[in-house]
Amino acid sequence: MAEALAPYQVVELGGGVAAAYCTKLFADFGAHVRKVESIGGDPLRNVPPLVEGQSTFFSWLNTNKHSHSVSSFVNPSLLQAILNADLLIDARPWREFHGAQLNHAVLQQANPRLVIVAISWFGESGPYADYSALDSACWSWAGLVKLVGPKEGPPALLPGYPAQLVGGLSAFNAALVGLIGRASGARRFSLSIHESNVVLAEYQVALGTSGMPTKRLGINRFSPNYPLGIFKCSEGWLGITIVTPAQWQTFCELFGMEQAAQNPAYLASMHRVRDADSLDAQFVMQLSTKSAEHWFEVGRKLRLPFVIVPSMKELLEQGVHRQRKAFVPVSSGATQFQAPALPQRLTQTPARSGGLAPRLGKLSEPQEMPESFMGAPALPMSDRPLAGISVLDLTMGWAGPLVTRQLADLGAEIIKVEACQYPDWWRGTDFSANGMAERFYEKRPPFLMMNRNKKGITLDLSDTRGATLLKQLVSTVDAVAENYSQGVLPKLGLDYASLNKHNSELVMMSMPAFGAKNDWSDVRAYGSTLEQASGLPTLVGQASWPPTSGHVAFGDPIGGLNATAALLIGLDYKRRTGIGQHIDISQVECMLSLAAHAVIEQSVCGHTAERLGNRSPHYAPHGCFQCAGEDEWVFVAAASDGQWADLCAVTQLTVLASDRSLVTLEGRKEHEDEIEAALGVWTQVLSAHDIVKLLQTRGICAATVVSPFDLPNDEHLLQRGFWQTVSREIAGSEQPQPSLPFRQSASAYLVRTPAPTLGVDNQNVLRERLQLAEKDIETLRDAGVIGELAVPAALRGFKSMKKG
Length: 804
Hints:
With about 800 residues, the protein is an alpha/beta fold. It is built from 34 helices and 28 strands. The chain has an 8-stranded mixed β-sheet, with helices on both faces. It has a 7-stranded mixed β-sheet with strand order 14-22-21-20-17-18-19. The protein has a 3-stranded antiparallel β-sheet with strand order 9-10-11, sandwiched between helices. Strand 6 (about 85-90), helix 4 (about 105-110) and strand 7 (about 115-120) form a beta-alpha-beta unit.
């Protein structure tokens, strides 16, 4: 089969997980990637476990690349490689981007078709721009730590490299956007890893003014849903997420909770959250009498979001992942191990299945620069690189609309299709008489945040007239994105095989929770279910804790970012070849990269290390420490022996500074209890803000542990203009709108238009794209095929249209 990105030449500079994961996507989809390392190699080569002297995690990140070492960036071979390249991924310290060596402006002047993505922790402006960071620091500042863990604290960190993996995925999306849009000129994107991760907190930001609890509720407790947690069974652990009133009634019937079922207050999930402890007592004992596998099968029959929470060993052995080849062989020398496959499943242009990790080599001698690059004139620049691309958006909720929102922000025309009878469920479920009169479905902040910059039409797809109109619209667009339950679109005659007959070049992306055509394709899931099923909770917290969720609905934004990458690959390939294809995204597979370090450890060593809480095997100290004020915390880490010495000097912990056994990481690991106790005494008398200023001034890694509800007031994000506002009819007060995490200039891409009200663009879209006459449009409106108001009488069928 063809390789989607084979024409592209890519150079990677600067090291780090984010850059490596970005270029892994390029290499595994066929691009020629030159990874440029300093003499001695990328420090990630030494991250254990090692095989034949090389890190297995490094090997997974760098499959199918060519690795070259240079003693200096002042290197003719390196310069020539960049001048011959289509794309430069640069993760050097951000001030070097504008320095004398490999200056980005000079490079693009010499190679006018070069796309550059400059990766930094916090972007190239703002108070944090020069701060030292690690994944946990970035995670803390992105609002992803404070709500996780026990009520009394400390908040719980997610181990591994989550912030950089998310940043690398966003960098890939930026790079492909640049390649698609470079016909209007070479593009340089500045990407903030921090802002890339804020997207994971958007749901809570959107609900920040809704009266929901804003404090940590305890292990496996997240507002606004209950039960949403992980429970012990006779064998294994079961993940449960109950959202809708119908699911709650079925859940109560299953466990004989008659009184709870009859309590009208519990139809609203928020009231269940407040009584979680007493409600737990009514079913937890019953769960412990049967295995997690038993309850999983019961949940499937009842259409309840139950899922087995696997260990890394169990994850690697699960049949559904073997069916889909979710783990692939990676070769490091003569040794092979299993690691997560890329989750972007394109039917015509699949990624390579695993691959060989590169050994360190010298950069080849300069080749003659192609004439087409010599003196090529600058091309006119457009501020919307995806202008001219059109997508029919059949997605609802978070994951799918996040995909199309990103494309819309970049200039693509997104036509969101709902039905008056079946609106996007993120509009809310209050279809009472008062809710309809007040049009609450036009006011819910999460919907407004996910659907800006889009057009909105309504079509009742269960009516043959609506389905026919959709097929006609398909013939006019480049792509379709959908996340309906498995089986819904085929029943309506709107699956890929059917739609492809109306547009032979169609790119269509489907986003089932567990992928299509496997044993679990019918399993009902939410974003929290996907995290539970990924095994990630078995890595979080102390060894004595149950598997611990780290997010209210991780799978949604992670799935959305991965699906964006897949759709961009498909659109780019169609642009160059005229060939469309179907894309099958398993959202649970999108989660597996976050656990890659542990999956690889299990495969290589036959076990995973015991959970360390907030400690790290690579740094000491490393954790969250209480500060002055109620539930205020700061993250602090000594990322090197030099930072340890500076930390001792700043904190004036002379006893620790004088202990020569603590000079090395090994010595500090042996005395972490004493170090953490002493550091905790110092932090308790100062504010988190003051501690961060003191430590970061000396280059010591420290971060405020921010609540997601406080992100709209974050000084760095405010100074960078990350938050935007837009007025919208009916919604009332303006809501904060997050920007894309990458930008072409000092300013973010603009939020141009608010989320569409239901059916607001019916007239224009049907008239302009399908040339329907006014009388035909009125006939459709009279028949209820289109409309501008939700239709409560038909909402009884709402559940059947939801995502699986």
